[in-house]
UniProtKB/TrEMBL annotation:
Gene3D superfamilies: 3.10.310.30, inorganic pyrophosphatase (n-terminal core) (3.90.1640.10). Residues 16-168 form the DDH domain. GO terms for molecular function: nucleic acid binding. It holds the Pfam family DHHA1. This is Bifunctional oligoribonuclease/PAP phosphatase NrnA. It comes from Mucilaginibacter achroorhodeus. It comes from the Bacteria. InterPro entries: DDH_dom, DHH_sf, DHHA1_dom, Oligoribo/pAp-PDE_c-di-AMP_PDE. Residues 245-326 form the DHHA1 domain.
């Protein structure tokens, strides 16, 4: 493992850098990645952000986005950059299977690997780790990595601040989730002081939906929502026909599960969607209910206690039934 002094010394000269994050990146993934990118280029590093897959249009406005390389659309260049990299920053994920086919390229690389993450049970593939499961967002950890560990707070300019604020805002549920501590608010204030336009960022992320996306949301709530009162659980199950009918794009399903969780009596909400190649699950829970345990134990996934994801090779109907069959085991926690 690298120690901090060795890492700082290594970064004191321009390096070939790759920054990557998990597949189907969300606001924290892209905010962390582009925040790191905008920091590194100020020091003359040759940095590139490579995402395993595409990501929502409502995140493409961030500074540096035009330089992002999407692996699935440019595999040859991505492989070349990873092979040539001297250091790879792995942000907002802790296992190489979270970056799909890109993971094996990263694993085979001779570059130093730096993990900055807040998820449980990290895989041991990294040379340096800045990891804290209590952090509300990877972007929070990127901030402390730059400002505190590298002692370069002065280089958190408007572009860096804008990206990191976006990551913290989205992963903290607009600063309302339990892990939004006073420290998180102080960091947010520092980022605003550095140039992040908080109201504009909120507008770009949350108030830029297409008409199609809004109609799809309405359809899900009117036709796909099932309440299981005996378990204080809500399920929204979406078929591949529904996905095709509404021409659902990357990001259009973002946050729909939270509408189910917003029902007063609900302690566990599931958004289950047939993506053709696999059925994907997104779970959200309240208080101490371990959504991550269900995803890890039954659906080849994981995540945080109150926000987790998984997948299934079974049909949508079979996956929904499997999810329902699990609930009796958790009834005591669900009806507290």
């Amino acid at each position: 493992m690298l120690d901090l002094a060795s890492l700082t010394d290594f970064l004191s000269q321009p390096r070939k850098v790759v920054i990557t994050t998990h597949h189907k990146p969300d606001g924290d993934a892209m905010g962390s990645s582009l925040g790191m990118y905008n920091y590194l280029i100020q020091q003359g590093h040759h940095a590139k952000v490579i995402t395993p897959t595409d990501y929502p249009d409502f995140l493409t406005w961030m500074p540096g986005n035009e330089e992002v390389i999407i692996f699935t659309e440019n595999q040859e260049l991505s492989a070349q950059l990873v092979a040539e990299a001297e250091i790879i920053f792995c942000l907002d994920f802790n296992s190489l299977n979270r970056i799909n086919e890109l993971g094996e390229l990263v694993r085979a690389s001779n570059a130093y690997k730096v993990m900055i993450d807040h998820h449980l049970e990290p895989e041991d593939f990294d040379d340096y780790r800045h990891w804290d499961i209590k952090a509300c967002a990877a972007a929070q950890l990127v901030y402390t990595f730059i400002a505190d560990q590298l002692n370069n707070k002065a280089l958190i300019n408007k572009d860096v601040a804008t990206c990191l604020y976006t990551g913290i805002m989205t992963d903290s549920g607009s600063f309302r989730l339990p892990n939004t501590t006073s420290e998180v608010h102080r960091i947010a204030a520092e980022l605003i002081d550095a140039g992040a336009n908080n109201s504009r960022i909120h507008e770009l992320v949350y108030n830029s939906a297409s008409e199609n996306r809004l109609r799809f949301l309405g359809y899900c709530l009117a036709n796909c929502l099932e309440i299981l009162p005996e378990y204080n659980t809500a399920i929204i199950a979406v078929s591949k026909q529904d996905i095709q009918r509404f021409d659902v794009n990357t990001g259009d399903t973002e946050g729909i599960v939270n509408y189910a969780l917003s029902i007063a009596s609900i302690r566990l909400a599931a958004f289950i969607v047939d993506r053709s190649e696999k059925v994907k699950l997104s779970l959200r829970s309240k208080d101490e209910f371990p959504a991550n345990e269900i995803c890890k134990k039954y659906f080849a996934g994981g995540g945080h206690r109150n926000a987790a994801g998984g997948q299934s090779d079974e049909s949508l109907e079979a996956t929904v039934e499997k999810f329902k069959s699990i609930l009796p085991s958790y009834k005591k926690l669900l009806i507290q």
